[in-house]
Amino acid sequence: MAVDHAKGRYDVIVVGAGYGGATCAALLAGRGYRVAVIDKNPAPGGKAMTLHRDGNSYEMWPIVGGPATGSRIEELLELIEAPVPEVILTPERAAEFRYIRPDGSMTMTPVGSLPGSVMGLPADPSVGEPELAAAAAMAVAALTMAENDLALLDDVDILTWMSTYDVGDVLRAHQLAILNLLFVAPVDRIPASEALRTLKDFGLKGAGRYHAGGYAVPAELAVEYVTSRGGTYLPRTAVDRIVIENGTAIGVMASGVLVEAPVVVSNAGIQPTVLSLAGPDQFPPAYVDRVMSLEPSWAFVGLRYFLDAPVMEVPMILQFSGQSWWDTDRYVAARAGHWPDHPLLFAATPALYDPTLVADPSRQVVLAGTMASPDPKSPMSAAAIERTDAEMLATWPELEGHVTRRESFTAANTSAASRASVVPGQGGECIGLAQVIGQCGASKPDPVTPVRGLFLTGCDAGGYGCGTHQAVESGFVVADLVAAALG
Ligand SMILES: Cc1cc2nc3c(=O)[nH]c(=O)nc-3n(C[C@H](O)[C@H](O)[C@H](O)COP(=O)(O)OP(=O)(O)OC[C@H]3O[C@@H](n4cnc5c(N)ncnc54)[C@H](O)[C@@H]3O)c2cc1C
User: 95-211+298-415: what fold?
Assistant: First the structure.
């Protein structure tokens, strides 16, 4: 392992170069701290890592961010003086919502990525004036809600909050499918505060954020910035242990070497950090009990299709029926084998919004998936992939003749790219901790742990919002906390 001992001790070691770790490391390096970033993966980005193979670049799985503009990702890029490598999907071509009616026919609604247009509603004939008026009233309530009113909704689930607006079955199915996609969690347990804060951002600042060259580019640039400021980046290096003496973090053990620093920031997930890397004996029993009880988000699993012809025409597709969205009961039923006729399907073709990703424009890589159990050992990943494939081929039969290779991605693959499975059923989560009541807002775990000098960053602590944006938000919050601790 190439630790630069000439530099002496580091001020901060960041375990993990996911969006949370990379952000936190760059901001601290920018403030003059000596930072080492250690990651088990070959490249930065964590769950949002971009793969570069055979002249093509593509995400490991479908990924797109929000808010589109004025985001924390943009702020990070400005602070590290990186060129803003941004391709925000164009309004005409961003996405399509495809609602499957009970009789099997389909309503297709094009959606833009500009502020307001993400709220595009399915233009189904069954949606009349009263439903549209209710949806408009709900959107106004969400977009104008003040922060102190939002904070009162930590313990109210979004399904209950929405039930006061009679939007009808189609718009309800549409809104709940979007919530499932954003949070990958049961709609009857997502706090209204978290959902509305996020939807407000999307409504006011747009969605459909992408970065030219691959979604992971900001994380890659953040890590480059760390090294440009004299810091160290060690890829392909797993941290085996966070070393703690007398209740204080003093460094990490990686590849048999002790790397020392008075602050360790872990992006490896709260459960792996506390229960495995640091060890439960280092924490008060009540803290360990709480950490053990935390619940992961569901997984998102599916397939990468490598095509020898450009079959797909729309960059992003969200396809659903009235049965596709999941609350707790529907998830439990699907886990037991009772799947809806049409699984919620999200498909993305990155080259349609960033042509630089493919060496040969006559080819495409299509990423498609659906929700499943986060348990890396669960058979639900295989069942979900089978259903995703069937739904894709039923919708685009012409795909089959052009597929040169299929690669599946499972909860186990997600765990390998991000966090270890240290609690039964956890590891392959799509987001991080589930954004459910009791784990968000005031109840979200504190990034400051009971061990002096040990902090958490990423989707488990310190942020809010959708996936990568939540991780970056956490990176900002934690960089401030660390700077305050170091002085
Ligand atoms: C299929 C799928 C689709 C998604 N789609 C979207 C989307 O469209 N939009 C969106 O915003 N988000 C999406 N997400 C979620 C988003 O990718 C994550 O929420 C976010 O990237 C998590 O960032 P993080 O910083 O919390 O940690 P992670 O990305 O989990 O990074 C953790 C890092 O820590 C490293 N690490 C862990 N343990 C160790 C160790 N012991 N030693 C060294 N390194 C270690 C890992 O290698 C990894 O690099 C998706 C995720 C998946 C899986």
Answer: Polyamine Oxidase; Chain A, domain 2 (3.90.660)
